[in-house]
UniProtKB/TrEMBL annotation:
<keyword id="KW-0813">Transport</keyword>
<feature type="transmembrane region" description="Helical">
    <location>
        <begin position="282"/>
        <end position="306"/>
    </location>
</feature>
<feature type="transmembrane region" description="Helical">
    <location>
        <begin position="114"/>
        <end position="136"/>
    </location>
</feature>
<dbReference type="Pfam" id="PF00361">
    <property type="entry name" value="Proton_antipo_M"/>
</dbReference>
<feature type="transmembrane region" description="Helical">
    <location>
        <begin position="246"/>
        <end position="270"/>
    </location>
</feature>
<comment type="subunit">
    <text>NDH-1 is composed of 14 different subunits. Subunits NuoA, H, J, K, L, M, N constitute the membrane sector of the complex.</text>
</comment>
<feature type="transmembrane region" description="Helical">
    <location>
        <begin position="312"/>
        <end position="334"/>
    </location>
</feature>
<dbReference type="InterPro" id="IPR001750">
    <property type="entry name" value="ND/Mrp_TM"/>
</dbReference>
<protein>
    <recommendedName>
        <fullName>NADH-quinone oxidoreductase subunit N</fullName>
        <ecNumber>7.1.1.-</ecNumber>
    </recommendedName>
</protein>
<feature type="transmembrane region" description="Helical">
    <location>
        <begin position="373"/>
        <end position="397"/>
    </location>
</feature>
<feature type="transmembrane region" description="Helical">
    <location>
        <begin position="171"/>
        <end position="188"/>
    </location>
</feature>
<keyword id="KW-1133">Transmembrane helix</keyword>
<feature type="transmembrane region" description="Helical">
    <location>
        <begin position="41"/>
        <end position="64"/>
    </location>
</feature>
<keyword id="KW-0874">Quinone</keyword>
<dbReference type="GO" id="GO:0012505">
    <property type="term" value="C:endomembrane system"/>
</dbReference>
<feature type="transmembrane region" description="Helical">
    <location>
        <begin position="148"/>
        <end position="165"/>
    </location>
</feature>
<feature type="transmembrane region" description="Helical">
    <location>
        <begin position="514"/>
        <end position="535"/>
    </location>
</feature>
Length: 545
């Protein structure tokens, strides 16, 4: 007879002595239900590897000589590659850890299909950013290398943790671990007033968003008594009438907090100045990884935690989607091609418009099923590849044209045919035009999700915005193949005989990491256009399995 069985038998006796014995046996059986849990280290390996790599680089920075700081960047790239490799053993089976005692279905960390896809997106985005940053860290003496790589890897660790979080506490902590280093990355360049201003604006807006979100989380906890997303979903079905208003307010405030993170209008005001003031690789990182973090968090709280209040967040997200895509595309349309940093500003406003498209399937999930979010995941994968590629080409052009004007791209095909063809292909993917098939397919899937959910008005708004976006994407593409304006040649110094040699402009050599980033993103975009089934398989079925 086991200890627990003996306790139950003695508890059936009515005498005080036997009751005391039963109590002692229950305490003896308590260690069997210990709160000490085993940790699934394989499940949490990706964020742990990124975090450990960040700490190692921070310590190594103290001992590496100034002339060998580039080794820190190579270490960061290696750490991200190892973190990506740690995702491979997790395929095909859901790994859970940090679960409630006695209920292994309620966990704080779940490495399901959704988490693995977003983690792969985040790590690939961080890896391409690291490749772009290798050249920047070498050329820019105002950028402290050790701190830069530590902050980049720390932010990547938080961003990798977030899609696997399954309770609100872990979700908020992961979001802040991803965001706080990003503030410092934006303003890390010493002596740059634009960079400091961008970091301050980014910081203030994000802190406001976090405060609003925490208020919403506290309301949700007060109404449900739980922080686990699946438990919240169950308890919101039976919220007492006197707590219903509190629960609705909590849902609304939590959505507002994530709307800041996703740069959804009218909470998008920080995006253009932040992208312009930040180092170009950091702007690329924010445009892809920052969006992946915001949208994965938004999906988790709406589809997993708040399905009972779909009538609250569904219409709200549909309106936000329409407003965001319209504001972003109209602002991008109005960019002056001769204005300084107009290229990055156009990419910034384009990212706001793309955020509107990404919101559409999430809003549609309120009216049909969570299977609609697969369209958001597929679109995010397409957007990540082509937008990182566009920023990589922008980084190449900025080496010879630091003004960053759109007019600087005129005649790029004559100067660098591969870069021009790559950028042209990326822009056509963003526009959804052949040969950028993957962009067209991704837009069709998002459009179909709105139609299937009965949101015909939102589908019409999206169609109008796609047409608007065609103009500025095609205008930029056309500039790449136009003849470059005639420039006064730089005169070389006269020789000893008094003759002036023929003027020659020495081209700047393409750095290997920058060229690698362009080639990798171009190959990925072409492969996805040739075989879109690689990401379309996420469109059907639920990802939370």
């Amino acid at each position: 007879m086991t200890v627990a069985t003996e306790a139950v038998t003695l508890a059936a006796q009515a005498t005080p002595t036997q009751t005391a014995q039963a109590t002692d046996l229950v305490h003896a059986a308590a260690p069997a239900a210990s709160l000490v849990q085993s940790v699934d280290w394989l499940a949490i390996a990706p964020p742990v590897v990124a975090a450990v790599a960040a700490l190692l680089i921070l310590v190594a920075d103290l001992f590496v000589r100034e002339g060998r700081k580039h080794l820190l960047g190579l270490g960061a790239v290696l750490g991200l590659v190892v973190a990506l490799a740690a995702l491979l053993p997790l395929r095909g089976a859901g790994h859970r850890t940090f679960c409630l005692v006695g209920d292994t279905t309620v966990c704080s960390y779940t490495a399901d299909q959704f988490a693995l896809v977003i983690q792969a997106l985040v790590l690939v985005g961080a890896l391409v950013t690291a490749l772009l940053s290798l050249t920047l860290a070498k050329d820019d003496k105002n950028l402290p290398a050790g701190e830069y790589w530590f902050l980049l890897l720390s932010s990547a660790a938080g961003a990798t943790l977030l899609p696997a979080a399954r309770d609100l506490a872990t979700l908020v902590v992961a979001l802040e671990v991803a965001s706080l280093p990003a503030f410092a990355l934006v303003g890390l360049r010493r002596g740059d007033k634009r960079s400091s201003e961008a970091a301050l604006k980014f910081f203030l807006s994000s802190v406001t968003a976090t405060a609003v979100m925490l208020l919403g989380v506290s309301f949700v906890y007060a109404a449900t008594g739980s922080l686990h997303l699946t438990e919240i979903a169950t308890r919101l079905d039976n919220v007492p009438a006197q707590l219903d208003t509190l629960a609705q307010a909590g849902v609304a405030l939590t959505l507002v907090g994530f709307a800041f993170k996703t740069a959804a209008a009218p909470f998008h005001f920080w995006v253009p100045d932040t992208y312009v003031g930040a180092p170009l690789p950091v702007a690329a990182y924010l445009s892809v990884t920052g969006k992946a973090v915001g949208f994965s968090g938004l999906i988790l709280v709406t589809v997993v935690a708040f399905p009972s209040y779909a009538d609250v967040w569904g219409p709200a997200l549909a309106v936000l989607a329409a407003l965001t895509m319209t504001v972003g595309n109209v602002a991008a349309l109005r960019q002056n091609a001769t204005r300084a940093h107009s290229a990055v500003r156009l990419l910034a406003w384009s990212s706001v418009g793309q955020a509107g498209y990404l919101l559409v399937p999430i809003a549609a999930a309120a009216y049909t099923s969570d299977a609609q979010i697969g369209s958001t995941v597929a679109y995010a994968l397409m957007y990540a590849v082509v937008n990182l590629g566009a920023f990589a080409v922008a980084a190449l052009v900025s080496r010879t044209n630091p003004g960053g004007r759109l007019t600087d791209y005129r005649g790029l095909y004559a100067r660098s045919p591969l870069a021009a063809l790559a950028l042209g292909f990326f822009l056509l993917c963003l526009a959804g035009l052949p040969p950028g098939i993957i962009g067209l397919v991704a837009k069709v899937t998002v459009f179909s999700s709105a139609v299937d959910a009965g949101l015909a008005w939102l589908a019409v708004v999206m169609a109008v915005n796609v047409v608007i976006a065609l103009y500025y994407y095609l205008r930029w593409t056309a500039l790449l193949f136009r003849p470059a304006p005639q420039e006064a040649p730089e005169q070389a110094p006269a020789t000893a005989t008094g003759e002036t040699p023929h003027p020659v402009r020495a081209p700047r050599r393409l750095p290997a990491p920058l060229g690698t980033a362009i080639v990798l993103t171009l190959v990925a975009a072409v492969a996805l256009s040739g075989y879109p089934q690689l990401i379309l398989r996420f469109v059907t079925g639920s990802l939370f399995q």
